[in-house]
Design a protein that fits this description.
Oligomer: heterodimer
CATH architecture of chain A: 3-Layer(aba) Sandwich
Structural class of chain B: alpha/beta
Distance between the termini of chain A: 29 Å
Strand order of the largest sheet of chain B: 5-11-10-14-12-13
CATH superfamily of the largest domain in chain B: NADH-ubiquinone oxidoreductase 51kDa subunit
Strand content of chain B: 5-15%
CATH superfamily of chain A: NADH:ubiquinone oxidoreductase-like, 20kDa subunit
Order of helices and strands of chain A: HEHHEEEHEHHEEH
Number of strands of chain B: 14
CATH topology of chain A: Rossmann fold
Shape of chain A: elongated
Distance between the termini of chain B: 64 Å
Number of helices of chain A: 7
Radius of gyration of chain A: 19 Å
Largest sheet of chain A: 5 strands, parallel
Number of strands of chain A: 7
Shape of chain B: globular
Structural class of chain A: alpha/beta
Chain lengths: ~190, ~600
C-alpha cells in the first residue's frame, strides 16, 4: 500500500492543482455514492489527488468550475434537470455513474405507465392514503412525464456502468484521470454476473 | 367455422407432424382463425413435440402471426418510402377514420384491423395494401371508399371486384433473358444429353453470379454442393423478396415461374437433390395458386416427380413454403431456419449452406432470377450469356424501378449500364438521388450518375428507387431506419440496440433538436453496426444514414441546432402532466430551453 501511494504521488508530481471533482445524486438510490465511499481508507489518498467541490460528501451546495462531475441517478423531475444542467455547465468532463444515470435504471420502470396513473396510485387510490390529493407544494419539484438517462438531457463524456460501479472502478477511474492516463478498466471491473 | 380440433387434425394428417412443419401449420391456423388460439398451440406442441414456449417465440417472431384475434378483415398498408411518396399515410388515416378503428387494434366488433407493414413489393403500382394476405394495388381515395363499403357490408374478400387485385407485370425493357422463351423441359433435356459436368462447365463459362446481391458464382456454388458428401441434398429458391423497393421476382414468379422451376430441377439433377423448396414471401400469397398449378403441370408433364423425362433415378419435386412477414428470412441461413419451421435467426457461417444447409444437409440457395438464368444457360450455353455484360458481371440483370419517374416497372439491362442511362429510360427528371439495392443499399447523388451498375462498380440486387428534388431525403432515411428497427431479429446487440439508437437520432434530426454532437454519435454507432453485427441486416442497416451523411450533408446540417447538445424531446412539455395534476404554473413548474 505504501509503495502504491508513493507511486501515485510521483505520478501526481508536476500537477500544480488537484483535480476538482463534484458529485450529485439525481433520481437514484444513493448506492453509487455509497460505493464510492467503499474505497475505504484509500479516501485519504484520494483527497491527496482530488479536491471535492459540490458533493453530498462535503455537503457543499453550490458548484464552481470543476474538472470532473460524477452524476448518479437518472432525470426524473425539474430539479434533476436544473442540477444536471448546472453540472454540465461547470464540469469539463461529465460522467454518468451507474445504471440509473446510464439507462434510467429502476426509477425508469415507471415509464411503463402514464405519470397520471403513477401519481394517482401513490396519492389517491393507494391503500391507506389519507386526505387523497397529488402534492402541489411549490417546494416539491414537478415530475417529468418519463424518467430519462442523463445523456438524453445533456452531453455526457464518460459512462461508468454498474449497479453500483464498484469502489475499485471509481478508484481506477479517478486515479487514471488524475494521473493524466487514458481511462482503462481491467475486464474484472466491468464484468457483471 | 370449422371446429379447431378437426381443423388441426386434418392439417396434421394432410401435411405431416414433424417439427419442421410448425411455421406452415401456424400460417394455416392464422389464416383460418385470424390468430393462433391457445388450444391450437397446445395441440401443435403435443403433436409436433415442440414446447409451447418455443411455439410462442415463433409466433412472436413473424409479423403475420398473432396470439390475439385480428379483425375479420385484416388490412396492412405497405409502408415503403415509395408508398409514402404516393400518399399511403393519408389513405390509411382516412380508412381508419371511416371505419372508426385505431391502427393496430381490432375494432370492438372484431370486424377489421388496420396497420402498417414493410414493403409489399408493389412499389411500381402503389400505394398498396394486403387484405387478409392478398395484395391490393393502386390505392386511391375512391378505392379505399369502396373497400370501406364492402367491409361494412360484410362482403367476403373473394367476392370483391377483381380489378382491386390486378397486379401488373410492368415489364418496361426486355433483353436476352426475358426475350428468350424457354421451351418447357428443354434445360432438363439438355442436362440428360450433355451431362452434369458439361452443364456445370457452361455455368462456369457463363460467369453467372447470384442475383440476390452477394454475387457468388452460381457454378461454384452448385459444384460445392454436389461435391459435399451426404445422403440428401436440397435446392432452395429464395423468393423472400423483402428488400424495400424490389419486385422483379414477383414478375418472374408471375410470368416465368416455369423457367424458375426448370432451373431448380436442373440444379437438383446436378447436385443430386430429390427435393426443392420455393420459399415464397407471405406478401406474395396471391401468387401461390398459380405457382401450385404450374408445379402440377410440370408433374403431369413428367418434369417433376420420379424418373423425370424417363431418366431412371432422376427424382425431384418442389414444395412451396410461405414466409410470414420477416425481412431477415431473405438471408439464406435465416431462410433455412425458417424452412425448418423455426424463427428466422441467421446462422453462424461457416459452415455455409452448400455443405450444411437445410436439415444440416448440403443445400443450394439461389435467387429466383439466378435459377431462371441457369435454366437458359443450360440450353443456350455460357457464351450466349456472357455476350452481354462486363467481364466480372456477365449477362443481364433485372431492375425494379420505382419512385419519381414516369415509367416505373421492371427493366432488364446488361450489367455495366450507367445509372444515368437507366434514369433516362424510365423518365426520371430532376433527380436528386437514387437509392440502389434497397434500404440496405447505396444512396447515389447526381455527380455519380455516370457510374455503372456492376460488381466492379456499384453492385445491385435489383432495386432502384428514384427521388426528385422536391423530396426530403431525410424522410427516406427515417423510413429505412424504422424498417431496420422493425425487422431486426433481436439476436445481436449491435443491431437490436444500435439500430434503434440510430433511428432515434435520425428522428431527433427530423424534429430539429439535434446538434453536431448527435451527428457524431450517428456516425459512431453506424460504424459499430458495420463492424460488429451478426448478419448482413445489421451490417448494412446504417448504410443509408452514413451514405446520406457523407453525400447529402445539407439534409442534416440545415436542421441542426447551434448548440453543443439538446435533448430529443421538449423538457418543458414533459412537465405538462405534472402541472395539470398539481394545478401549478409557477416559475419552478417550467423548464426553459437548455444552453
Amino acid at each position: 500500500m505504501v509503495a502504491q501511494m508513493s507511486n501515485i504521488q510521483q505520478r501526481n508530481q508536476g500537477r500544480k492543482d488537484k483535480l476538482i471533482v463534484a458529485t450529485a445524486p439525481l433520481c437514484g438510490c444513493f448506492g453509487c455514492h455509497m460505493s464510492l465511499l467503499d474505497i475505504d481508507e484509500r479516501i485519504f489518498e484520494l483527497v491527496e489527488l482530488v479536491e471535492f467541490d459540490r458533493t453530498p460528501v462535503t455537503d457543499i451546495k453550490t458548484i464552481g468550475k470543476c474538472d470532473i462531475g460524477l452524476i448518479e441517478g437518472g432525470v426524473a423531475n425539474a430539479h434533476n434537470v436544473h442540477d444536471l444542467r448546472e453540472f454540465r455547465a461547470n464540469c469539463d468532463t461529465l460522467v454518468a455513474v451507474g445504471s440509473c444515470a446510464v439507462t434510467g435504471g429502476i426509477p425508469a420502470m415507471r415509464n411503463q405507465f402514464d405519470l397520471k396513473e403513477c401519481l394517482e396510485e401513490a396519492y389517491i387510490h393507494g391503500i391507506g392514503v389519507e386526505n387523497p390529493h397529488v402534492p402541489n407544494d411549490v417546494e416539491i419539484p414537478l415530475l417529468l412525464d418519463k424518467v430519462h438517462p442523463i445523456h438524453e438531457v445533456v452531453r455526457v463524456d464518460y459512462f461508468l456502468p454498474g449497479c453500483p460501479p464498484s469502489a475499485d472502478t471509481f478508484w481506477q477511474f479517478l486515479t487514471d484521470v488524475a494521473a493524466g492516463n487514458e481511462v482503462s478498466f481491467p475486464y474484472s471491473l466491468i464484468h457483471y454476473d | 367455422m370449422q371446429d379447431l380440433d378437426s381443423f388441426l387434425h386434418g392439417l396434421l394428417a394432410e401435411s405431416g407432424d414433424t417439427p419442421d412443419r410448425l411455421l406452415q401449420h401456424l400460417i394455416a391456423v392464422q389464416k383460418q382463425y385470424s390468430h393462433i388460439p391457445y388450444d391450437a398451440i397446445q395441440v401443435l406442441s403435443e403433436r409436433l413435440g415442440i414446447p409451447p414456449v418455443q411455439i410462442y417465440s415463433v409466433i412472436e417472431y413473424y409479423a403475420f402471426l398473432h396470439r390475439n384475434p385480428r379483425g375479420k378483415y385484416d388490412i396492412r398498408f405497405s409502408d415503403n418510402i415509395t408508398d409514402r411518396m404516393l400518399g399511403n399515410r393519408l389513405l390509411m388515416q382516412g380508412m381508419c377514420k371511416k371505419l372508426a378503428v385505431e391502427p393496430g387494434i381490432p375494432r370492438d366488433d372484431g370486424k377489421v384491423t388496420i396497420e402498417m407493414t414493410s414493403c409489399t413489393g408493389l412499389c411500381d403500382q402503389g400505394p398498396a395494401l394486403l387484405v387478409n394476405g392478398i395484395a391490393v394495388s393502386k390505392l386511391t381515395e375512391m378505392r379505399i371508399h369502396k373497400m370501406v363499403g364492402l367491409i361494412e357490408a360484410g362482403v367476403p374478400v373473394g367476392k370483391w371486384p377483381g380489378k382491386f387485385f390486378i397486379v401488373e407485370d410492368n415489364i418496361q425493357r426486355r433483353d436476352m433473358l426475358l426475350n428468350k422463351r424457354l421451351i418447357k423441359g428443354s434445360a432438363l433435356e439438355s442436362l440428360l444429353v450433355k451431362g452434369a459436368d458439361a452443364i456445370l462447365n457452361d455455368l462456369d463459362e457463363s460467369g453467372l453470379r447470384g442475383r440476390g446481391g452477394a454475387g457468388f458464382k452460381a457454378g461454384t456454388k452448385w459444384r460445392l454442393c454436389r461435391d459435399a458428401a451426404a445422403d440428401e441434398h436440397y435446392v432452395v429458391c429464395n423468393a423472400d423478396e423483402g428488400e424495400p423497393g424490389t419486385f422483379k421476382d414477383r414478375v418472374l414468379l408471375n410470368s416465368y415461374a416455369d423457367s424458375v422451376f426448370e432451373g431448380m430441377t436442373l440444379c437438383g439433377g446436378i447436385v443430386g437433390a430429390r427435393k426443392g423448396f420455393l420459399y415464397l414471401r407471405g406478401e406474395y400469397l396471391y401468387l401461390l395458386k398459380t405457382l401450385e398449378n404450374t408445379l402440377q403441370e410440370r408433374r403431369d408433364a413428367n418434369l417433376l416427380g420420379n424418373n423425370i423425362l424417363g431418366q431412371e433415378g432422376f427424382d425431384f419435386d418442389i414444395e412451396i413454403h410461405l414466409g410470414a412477414g420477416a425481412y431477415v428470412c431473405g438471408e439464406e441461413s435465416a431462410l433455412i431456419e425458417s424452412l425448418e419451421g423455426k424463427r428466422g435467426i441467421p446462422r453462424k457461417r461457416p459452415p455455409f449452406p452448400v455443405t450444411s444447409g437445410y436439415m444440416q444437409k448440403p443445400t443450394v440457395v439461389n435467387n429466383v432470377e439466378t435459377l431462371l438464368a441457369a435454366a437458359r444457360i443450360a440450353v443456350y450455353g455460357g457464351d450466349w450469356f456472357r455476350s452481354a455484360g462486363t467481364p466480372e458481371s456477365t449477362g443481364t440483370k433485372l431492375f425494379s424501378i420505382s419512385g419519381d419517374c414516369e415509367r416505373p416497372g421492371v427493366y432488364e439491362y446488361p450489367f455495366g449500364v450507367t445509372i444515368r442511362q437507366v434514369l433516362e429510360d424510365c423518365g426520371a427528371l430532376d433527380t436528386q438521388a437514387v437509392q440502389l439495392s434497397g434500404a440496405a443499399g447505396f444512396t447515389i447523388p447526381p455527380q455519380e450518375f455516370y457510374r455503372q451498375i456492376a460488381f466492379e462498380d456499384v453492385p445491385s440486387g435489383g432495386s432502384l428507387m428514384v427521388f426528385n428534388r422536391q423530396r426530403d431525403l431525410l424522410k427516406m432515411v427515417l423510413n429505412f431506419t424504422r424498417f431496420f428497427c422493425h425487422e431486426s431479429c433481436g439476436f445481436c446487440t449491435p443491431c437490436r440496440i444500435g439500430g434503434r439508437l440510430m433511428n432515434d437520432l435520425v428522428e431527433k434530426v427530423m424534429v430539429g433538436y439535434a446538434t453536431s454532437y448527435d451527428i457524431h454519435e450517428l456516425k459512431k454507432i453506424g460504424r459499430v453496426l458495420q463492424k460488429s453485427a451478426h448478419c448482413g441486416l445489421g451490417t448494412t442497416a446504417p448504410n443509408a444514414v452514413l451514405d446520406t451523411l457523407q453525400k447529402f450533408p445539407g439534409t442534416y446540417s440545415r436542421r441542426l441546432v447551434n448548440k453543443s447538445y439538446e435533448p430529443a424531446f421538449n423538457l418543458d412539455k414533459a412537465l405538462e402532466v405534472s402541472r395539470q395534476l398539481t394545478g401549478r404554473d409557477d416559475e419552478e413548474a417550467h423548464l426553459r430551453l437548455g444552453n
